[in-house]
Specification:
two-stranded antiparallel ribbon, 11 strands, disordered C terminus
Amino acid sequence: MHMIFHHPLVSVIIPAYNAEKFIAETLNSVLSQTYKNIEVLVVDDGSQDRTAEIVESFAQKDHRIIFLKQVNAGVAAARNLAIQKSSGEYIAPIDADDIWDTLKIEKQLKLMLESESSVGLVYARSVFINEHGSVIGKYHKADDFFESQIVEGEVYTALLYSNFMANASVPLIRRACFERVGYYNCKLREKNAQGCEDWDMYLRIAEFYQFRVVPEFLVGYRQVVGSMSANYLTMAKSYELVWADVKQRHPEIPNYIYQWSASNFYIFLSNKSYTCGNNLSCIIWLHKAITKDSMQLLNTGLYRVLIPCIIKIFLKPVTSLIWKDHKAWLNFKQQFKQKQQGIKVLAISDMNGQINIESRQSKKLYDTVLQHRWSQVFQTCQTVLTPKTTIKQA
C-alpha cells in the first residue's frame, strides 16, 4: 500500500445507543486503522446501558476519541451532532456494531486524494458478520448481477434503483458535501420512519457529486436479530417518505425505475425478515416485490428464501420442540455448516478473495434481463441527469 503524503484529518463519527455489546469491537477496529490522522467522535444517544462507561475508558487511553452525549433523539441527530463538532476535511461514519478492515480509511482516502474535487464520496464493499464477529457471507443485493459491476461517476439513478452502498458504515465523504446538501434527515424519526437516513443522504450527495469505489470488502456489516434494521414496517415507511420526496424533485425519471426500486427494496425486507425468523413477513414482502416487478419470478434467490419459509411455517409445531427460537436455529445451522464444510472463522482482514461467488449457470436468463435493466438505468441517468455515469466490469 502506497503511503499518503498529504495527511488530512478524517473525522470518524459513531452514533451509539445501548451499544455496550459491540462498541468496544467497533472502536478497536477504528483505532487500529493504518491511517492514523483521525479523530473519533462517539455520540451516546441516551443509552441506558454501559455504553458511556466503555467509551470513556477508551477515551482515557486514546486522545483521538471525543465523547459526546445527547438525550435520545435518533441516529440522524446523533450523526449530525458528531459532524457539527468534528474538524476533519473528510467524514467517515460507522455504526456502533459494525467493524472495519484496518486498511479501510487508508485505501479510501488514497483514492479520494487521487480524484477530482467533483468526487464527493468513496465507498467500499461489505460482508455480513454475525454477533460473534465471524463473516457469514457477502452483502447480497436483490440482483446478484451487481456483484460483477463497479458503479462510479454520476450514480444517482443507479442508487435510486438499488442501494449498492449497502449500509451506513461504508463511505468516506467530503465535508463539503454536507455543507452543500445539508445533514442527515431527523424528520424521519419524528414520523416514526427511521431506517433510510443513510440512503437518503447518499442520494442527496449523488445529485451534486460523483462517487468512486474501492472494490474490496473493507466493512463488516453486523446482522443482529432485533436491531433497528429488523423493524420492517418502520423501514418501509421511511423508504416511502424518502421516495415521495425524490419523485417530487425528479418527475422526469421514468416510473419503471421507481417500480424496480420498490421491488428491490421489498426483496431486501424479505431477506431481513427471513434472517430474523419472521417467515410470514418474509412471504408478504416477497409478494409485494413480485407485484411491483414480475421479473423477480426469474430470481432463483427468491425461491431459496420462499421455499424454506413455507416449509418452516408448516413444520413449526415440530421444530419448536427442537429449537426454542430462531436464534437457536441459526446457531445450530452455522455450527452444522462449519462442521460439514470445514469452514474456518474468517477475520475481517481475510474478507477479500475468500468469499465464494455463487455459480450463475442456473440463472443465465435472469442475469441477461438484469444486464439489460442496468443498461436502461444508466441510459436514464445519461439522458435525464448527467452524461458522466460509468459502469465497468470488476
